[in-house]
Write a structure and sequence with these properties.
The protein is 42% helix and 20% strand. The chain is built from 13 helices and 10 strands. Helix 2 runs antiparallel to helix 3, helix 3 packs antiparallel against helix 5 and helix 9 crosses helix 11. The structure holds phenylalanine.
Length: 349
């Protein structure tokens, strides 16, 4: 190289071409700039190529000098270009690797942490109360037959109680429906198991109904206790324990006569208003009481459907709406909010 520079003293034009080309290649710091430098200094229109092409027209004494040195200059520039190319490629790789590097010391992206929906919180809370009293959790299908939803619950075809249920039927299957309550689980459990039976059955139920206090799908928890010598006192004591556990130790309950086809006698159970303490307010419509569930002693006819002997066993059953319990507990007025999926609502609980 030093040798070439020395020799280039013989031809000032080539020396200039060489110097400028070396400087141009040396200044390129990206692959694109290097390609531009290659075209400028070694391309067909570059001063070097133009000079080499013009050899035949040069004065005779200059020709051999330019011929010999010109090709050496070209070879030296090509070598420099290749070296520079390698340099750029490796520095680009280094840069890319640095850019892709993961900084493990950076704090992580916060991962939003959810929680149980208020309905599930309430379900779990109620389940805890009853499992604590020795009840087991039972399950049944949401798509039911007419037999389990009505007939075996002492509600024969044509019974007026059927029409109050606003049932969703499956098209083309008059005996198949979406269960309107969790009571069919009573029948399914008693068919399979001998008494004593102590179960609760939580789950979704469906009714063709929609307003501020009704959605077409909602949740119920059924309860069933069948044993020897079960009385209405047991029913009242059990549900009082439940009401105090969920609504507060100073709550009281009362029973009002009611009708259900599968219990006799049947009652509705009210809890003393947790807002006014029973004195009367807007929430309890100034009565001091709020209705929380339906219940009663299992009708002997029901035992007939499951093969239990009504002279041997007695029992009680109850059924409550989970949405209603949650609304009373949290002072909500519109049940549809449970299912609007508005996080501003859901996050409050
Ligand atoms: N299944 C009744 C309803 O949905 C509630 C209930 C259950 C009543 C058990 C009495 C006994 O209205």
């Amino acid at each position: 190289m030093a040798d070439l520079k020395e020799q280039l003293k013989e031809h000032e034009g080539l020396a200039t071409i060489y110097g400028e080309a070396m400087a141009g290649i040396g200044a390129a710091s990206t692959a694109e700039a290097l390609e531009e430098a290659r075209v400028a200094h070694l391309g067909r229109k570059s001063p070097l190529s133009v000079l080499l092409r013009s050899i035949p027209e040069l004065p005779a004494e200059e020709r051999p000098v330019v011929g010999r040195l010109g090709n050496q200059v070209r070879a030296a520039l090509e070598q420099e270009l290749a070296a520079k190319k390698g340099e750029i490629e490796s520095s680009e790789l280094v840069r890319r690797l640095a850019g892709e590097q993961v900084d493990i010391t950076l704090p992580g992206e916060p991962f939003p942490r959810g929680h149980l929906h208020l309905i599930n919180q309430t379900l779990w809370e109620i389940e805890d109360v009853f499992t604590g009293l020795g009840y087991r959790i039972a399950d049944g299908p949401e798509i039911e037959t007419d037999y389990y939803n009505f007939t075996a619950l002492n509600t024969p075809e044509g019974h007026p109680a059927r029409s109050s249920h606003d049932t969703f039927f499956i098209e083309g299957q008059p005996d198949v429906l979406l269960r309107t309550h969790t009571s069919p689980v009573q029948i399914r459990v008693m068919e399979k198991e001998e008494p004593p039976v102590y179960i609760i059955a939580p789950g979704r139920v469906y009714r063709r109904d929609s307003d501020a206090t009704h959605t077409p799908m909602f949740h119920q928890i059924e309860g069933l206790a069948v044993d020897r010598n079960i009385t209405m006192g047991d029913l009242k004591g059990t549900l009082e324990t439940f009401a105090k556990a969920i609504f507060g130790a100073d709550r009281e309950i009362r029973m009002r006569p009611h009708f259900f086809p599968f219990t006799e006698p049947s009652v509705e159970i009210d809890v003393s208003c947790m807002i006014c303490g029973g004195a009367g307010c807007r929430s309890c419509k100034h009565s001091g009481w709020l209705e929380i569930l339906g219940a009663g002693m299992v009708d002997p006819n029901v035992y007939g459907f499951v093969g239990y002997d009504p002279d041997e066993v007695q029992g009680f059953a109850f059924g409550m709406g989970v949405e209603r319990i949650a609304m009373l507990k949290h002072g909500m007025t519109d049940l549809r909010m449970f299912y609007d999926n508005d996080l501003r609502f859901i996050k409050q609980f």
